[in-house]
# Entry
Amino acid sequence: MNNGVSIPVGLVNDINLSSRARFVYIVMTAIQPCDRNIDMVAQVAGLNRSTVYKHLKELLASGWVSRSIVRENGRIKRVDYVLNDGRTKKR
# Structure
C-alpha cells in the first residue's frame, strides 16, 4: 500500500503563499476528499479552525484550492474542497 502524497512543485515554489498555507495544502492531500472538511484539517494539522480558514482563504485566492458548495433545500449540506495542481490551478 502506498501512503505517499504528491505535492506540486509549483506550490512549493509559490513565493506568494505563506508557509502555513503550504502546510494546510499538504495536510489536505493526506485527507480523503470525502473527509476533507475544516474540522478534520484542523485536527490533523494541529491548528484551530480560524487559522485553517485564514490559510484556506489564501489557497482559494491563489487558485491552489477550489471549493463547491453543495446545497439541499436551500441550505448548505457540505462544502467540497478540490486540490488543484500546477496543471489545473485556477487563476
